[in-house]
Amino acid sequence: MPSSRRWPAALLAAVCGLLILTPVASADLLSPESGGSPNADDIDLLYWIVMAVAIIVFVGVEGLLLYTLFKFKARKGAVAAQIRGNTRLEIGWTVGAALILVVLATVTFIKLDEIRTPATSGANGAQLADGVMVADTKRRLPPNGKSLNICVNGQQYVWRYTYAQDCKKAPLNAPFSYEEMVVPVDTTVTLDINAQDVIHSWWIPELGGKMDATPGYTNYTWFKVPGKFGAKPGGTVFYGQCAELCGRNHANMTARVRAVSVQEYEAWLDGRKQDIQNGNKAAEAQRKQFESSSATGQTP
Q1: Is 152 a domain residue?
Q2: Residue 97 in domain
Q3: Cβ of 81: how many Cβ atoms within 10 Å?
Q4: Is 130 part of a structural domain of the chain?
Q5: CB neighbour class for 39 (10 Å; exposed up to 12, middle 13-18, buried from 19)
Q6: Phi, psi (degrees; rounded to nearest 5) at 264
């Protein structure tokens, strides 16, 4: 091959190699990421079940095709036989394909219920006193009715996380954070997801499938991070991204979930509550100072 033709091929190979070696692009390589939550593991398992059936069908069909091509190829000078079809064979592969679809549909619906329904928090998870006591028919709850509920709000271009059981009636002093969500391990976390301005999409690949954040509408999902991820100080961080093109700074709208031990989570939550109290006290002091200065005609 002339050198003038080699360098485009080499450049293409190098670009493909870089894409494959990119950590996020090659994560789990052939299947969705998993390992951070039971629903993500079920999604991955369902994917591999479908993949296994597809591989069997592909190998069977292509193998039969290649066998037929070589076994019944026409000899030089021979006239091809006029074949009008085989009724039994045609009925057989039609029924076989239908049975495969029925089996896959049955397995999918069985696993879909496990993916959508939250698991119960583990024995070492956070102690949730009242669970989620909200008259809401859309949000799915664990069998015991208890979960840590977090309101996820997409904004151009950041995620806000409010820790409240009822997102529609969240108190003004409810603890919140931006960009990074902190959760306790071994605890079922339910999410109420919406958006403030345009459509966004919440997605932490290792914790489950993505969910759209739509203005005026609330979607629901859940995850539960195993206890092993909270063993080290500072916990484990799972990374994600807004998966819906939401504007010019879409690429900067990253998402993080940090799973920590129950003790670290409680300390973090107390810290957020204290920050809010301190902020309210500072605002109240500033307001009083402004009112006092205004009464005396002085500039604050």
Answers
A1: yes
A2: no
A3: 7
A4: no
A5: buried
A6: -65, -40
Mean pLDDT across the chain, nearest whole number? 83
| pTM over cut 0.85 | no
**Number of domains within the chain:** 1
In a domain, 156, yes or no: yes
Q: What is the span of the domain harbouring residue 168?
A: 148-284
Q: Give CA–CA dist 210/53, Å, rounded.
A: 25
C-alpha span between 278 and 265 (Å, rounded): 20
Tens-digit pLDDT profile for residues 37-77: 888 888 889 999 999 999 999 999 999 899 988 887 777 77
> Distance (Å, rounded) from C-alpha 10 to C-alpha 6?
6
d(CA 109, CA 112) in angstroms, rounded, equals 5
Is 275 a residue whose pLDDT tops 60? yes
User: What whole-number distance in Å separates Cα of residue 47 and Cα of residue 254?
Assistant: 26
The span from the CA of 165 to the CA of 161, in Å, is 12
Please, are residues 140 and 123 in contact by the beta-carbon 8 Å criterion? no
Question: Three-state SS across the chain?
Answer: CCHHHHHHHHHHHHHHHHHHHCCCCCCCCCCCCCCCCHHHHHHHHHHHHHHHHHHHHHHHHHHHHHHHHHHCCCCCCCCCCCCCCCHHHHHHHHHHHHHHHHHHHHHHHHHHHHHHCCCCCCCCCCCCCCCCCCCCCCCCCCCCCCCEEEEEEEECCEEEEEECCCHHHCCCCCCEEECEEEEECCCCEEEEEEECCCCEEECCHHHCCCEEEEECECEEEEECCCHHHHCCCCCEEEEEECCCCCCCCHHHCEEEEEEECHHHHHHHHHHHHHHHHHHHHHHHHHHHHHHHHHHHCCCC
C-alpha of 189 from chain center: 13
CATH number of residue 172's parent domain: 2.60.40.420
Token output for 105: 């549909």
